[in-house]
């Protein structure tokens, strides 16, 4: 199958593809992933050291002054809503999950600011559990260009990819496509001539997505 060739080439070129957010535990990854919405991982990684030094666990984050959280995370964008999500999610973790980030999809989705993409990131990278495929802007763009889906909705894209790719590779696949999106398959003017997937990509030579 073509998808197997794609995976093989991805693994050869990105053997160590992994989450690009900096974190030391599930709580830090959860917070960083919430902050990464509409923001680059690079920017999040610049912000989180100060945030985690000040509020290193759910207990302290839940009691943090909202204005102080906002000031620290301001450069990540949408900081008003994000600050509320960080505080409320932390409070729920303390009250409902004994102060520990849950390793269950349904429980993660009960937290403020956590949608399926965020839950998939935490489950895969922090707990080693593949319950779905993270569909961010890179995965959405590249899976469409590679002809692995015709869908535009992230949940439908995820379903298509889950049907094509073995479960053991779900976590790796999304990380690898992120790496590929940052290296070759840009949203505009992708480096198709240099891309190692060019011979099996139906969108070879594309200039930009409509």
Description:
It is a single chain. The protein is an all-alpha fold and 210 residues long. The chain folds into two domains: 83 residues, Helix-hairpin-Helix base-excision DNA repair enzymes (C-terminal) (Endonuclease Iii, domain 2), CATH 1.10.1670.10; 102 residues, Endonuclease III, domain 1 (Orthogonal Bundle). The chain is built from eleven helices and no strands. Helix 2 crosses helix 3, helix 5 packs across helix 6 and helix 9 packs across helix 11. The mean pLDDT is 95.
State the helix count. Answer: 11
CATH class of the largest domain: Mainly Alpha
Helical residues, percent? 55-70%
Q: How many separate domains make up the residues?
A: 2
CATH-wise, what's the superfamily of the largest domain? Hypothetical protein, domain 2
| Spatial extent as radius of gyration | 18 Å
Record the SSE blueprint.
Blueprint: H1 2-13, H2 26-35, H3 41-54, H4 58-62, H5 66-73, H6 79-96, H7 105-109, H8 116-127, H9 137-145, H10 154-164, H11 170-183
